[in-house]
Design goal:
Number of helices: 7
Radius of gyration: 35 Å
Largest sheet: 8 strands, antiparallel
Strand content: 25-35%
Number of strands: 26
Strand order of the largest sheet: 1-2-3-22-21-23-19-20
Amino acid sequence: MINSQVNDYYRSYFGAYFADYLKDKKRQDTRLNCIMIIFIVSVLLVSFCLSKPIFAKTDTGPDKIANTGQEIYIQKNFEENIKNKYAGSYITFPYSGVAHIKRVKYINSKPIRINIVELNTKVNPYLKIKPQTASDNLNSKRTVRKIAQKEQSIIAINGGFFKPNTGVPLGALMIDGEVLTGPIFNRVGIAIYEDGNNTSFKMDNIHFDIKAYSSNNVLNIDNINQPRILSTYTLMYTSDWGDYSPPPPKNGYNMVIRDNQVIKISANPVKIEQNDIVIQSSKEKISKIGKDKEIKIEIKLQENLQGATHIIGAGPYLVKNSQIYVDYKEQKLQAISGKNPRSAIGYDSKGSFYIVTIDGRESTSVGMTLYELARLMKNIGCEYAMNFDGGSSSAMYIKGKIVNNAVNSEGIPVSNALVVNEINPNELQISSINRQI
């Protein structure tokens, strides 16, 4: 009930109409009900608009939320599986789909420090694995850290064998479909396939079929960009080798081919210009094919590995078809069979890729033999595994740091490495080019 003083107050400020309204309770109730209805309707309209913005792209919103949830679920499932698999080890997850495991194993009461990276390209399809050289020239060396930083890689491990004095890789090396070096002693290598978002692997003894064709002759070439092992070999060199070819064998010649044309034949080392090819062989073979003037080179990878994007060779095998298989005698690697620091890689059919280093040559970690390493690789799940260069070369790089106890804390400069990059999703190709080499 509004008293007379209040009525006088409102009449003086708002006029007689408003004062009369305040005295009429029925009119007040009617107006109040209307105001309440308008207020409730307004609140409902505002709530609806806030829950569904006018300018939102509602057709893509739910899918994006669902995909994010699925990615989180897959990563959590990956992490739980890793924790169960490596129970008792020190485990970190530096990137999506990547686990770093540190553990100590005892063999005959002797300690061995082990670093394992297990990554899964199905969990994180943006992980790309490939070999890399120390520089554009094969005659060069860098530490694993510097190779990784040059390529902006998140993970790296030293790769295949190399000549210590020059850095030339001693084994098969193919990067982005370009053959840089050929295999030696029929050693094993890993072929990496990239098909859009999908990455897969094959492991086998590597062989390149290299031929020089002229109108009247065919010359079989034994290897590319490798030091001479036998005087009877016919070798091919490109500008990747360096500025000059090696000297030919006794009574042999170097033949320079540019744009499929023979431009020079010499008994001395020759300068190799960009895109030149030098064939080095006996005087008889060079003279026979060189007289035709026009020569074409063909390089083919063995049939079961065709279509590979990258290849890196080393050896020996450690695991083959899920069984321990150490063929170090066949691959002429007897000198490395004792207890040493080790580097190795492997994979399984579920998309997991394994990168392993073993510390050695110290009282707190004595290293492993090839057979001990093979048992480890099989036990952690590898269906195929191979040994990389070890000893002073062994170094594992993760997220800016060398994580194993490498020589001089960095490892020695090496010729090549296997690196892992995490690419931008927008850079993924829809499909890959089938390379027929």
